[in-house]
């Protein structure tokens, strides 16, 4: 390209030093706001284009960060992504986004591709079945990495997630308060850390409430609408009676509600349903979904913040962070605005 505008051109236009212009372009706090604004306006008028490649050679950082999630079509992961991108956008970073769709091969290809693109760090929602070996390259190369919402055992990487144990615990206690005779956890990948956390919360609640173990059931083969629909149909066929259902997440709950619409059972009256996530659409379900609000955007924001702290070499970054959540009472559990079970 010919006649490219340089930092010196901007400096000459304003009568300031080239180093001052350079500091502005690097986002340095050492430059006064008034001067920063003049430099930015001059750069815009002259048509200056920031050379990120050259800057990365000097700083050894590209300003690019990788985000790998399960599926951007899942509203929960969409909300996580928004939280990550909004925070990093304000910080002047660029997010490279990829989805693995629970495919370990795709996850490996995405990680390799992002490393080849010289990302400064990665935020990853691990695919189901991910083992410590799948992240060995990240550990060997010492790539700043944060795992988000899904933990991997025996992996020494930073983790940000919701306190699923306490969330499931509060949800099950509420189901029991509705005097339901049976409690069922529906959905999720059995044996994964996120599913185990829900089972732990369920177990703690039923033990404290002295709820008979014989009337507790766990049904899980996936975290999709189809999984929720199929498992609810199976539960209906078995002759459900006064059951309290804890759905693995709001997507599974949506499938459960669809299956129950075709049955004689009325959600909220004949049975209670509580979920986990509180994605935006949960309040628009019929009936409105009682659910545990994990604040997905805040999870994403916290993961992004932690990643930048790791990249900056801050020493006091916590390895494992569980964010608090809150049980949101709507109609699907059997409560209403004028009649809530405490």
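^ structure tokens above, recovered residues below v
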């Amino acid at each position: 390209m010919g006649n490219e505008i340089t930092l010196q051109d901007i400096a000459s236009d304003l009568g300031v030093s080239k180093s001052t212009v350079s500091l502005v372009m690097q986002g340095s706090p050492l430059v006064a706001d008034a001067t920063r604004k003049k430099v930015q306006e001059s750069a815009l008028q002259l048509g200056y284009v920031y050379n990120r490649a050259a800057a990365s050679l000097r700083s050894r950082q590209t300003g690019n960060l990788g985000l790998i999630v399960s599926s951007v079509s899942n509203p929960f992961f969409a909300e996580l992504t928004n939280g990550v991108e909004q925070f990093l956008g304000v910080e002047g970073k660029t997010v490279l986004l990829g989805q693995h769709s629970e495919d370990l091969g795709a996850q490996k290809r995405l990680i390799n591709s992002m490393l080849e693109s010289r990302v400064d760090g990665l935020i990853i929602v691990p695919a189901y079945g991910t083992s410590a070996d799948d992240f060995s390259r990240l550990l060997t190369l010492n790539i700043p990495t944060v795992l988000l919402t899904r933990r991997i055992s025996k992996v020494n990487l930073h983790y940000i997630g919701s306190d699923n144990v306490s969330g499931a615990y509060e949800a099950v206690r509420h189901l029991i308060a509705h005097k339901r005779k049976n409690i069922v956890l529906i959905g999720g990948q059995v044996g994964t850390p996120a599913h185990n956390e829900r089972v732990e919360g369920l177990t703690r609640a039923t033990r404290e409430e002295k709820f008979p173990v014989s009337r507790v059931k766990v049904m899980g083969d996936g975290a999709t609408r189809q999984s929720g629909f199929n498992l609810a149909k199976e539960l209906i066929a078995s002759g459900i009676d006064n059951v309290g259902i804890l759905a693995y997440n709001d997507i599974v709950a949506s499938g459960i509600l669809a299956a129950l619409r075709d049955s004689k059972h009325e959600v909220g009256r004949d049975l209670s349903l509580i979920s986990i996530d509180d994605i935006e659409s949960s309040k628009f379900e019929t009936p409105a979904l009682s659910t545990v609000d994990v604040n997905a955007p805040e999870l994403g924001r916290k993961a992004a913040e932690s990643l930048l702290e790791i990249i900056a070499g801050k020493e006091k970054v916590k390895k494992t962070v569980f964010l608090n959540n809150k049980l949101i009472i709507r109609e699907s559990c059997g409560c209403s605005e004028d009649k809530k079970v405490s």
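The chain has a mean pLDDT of 91.
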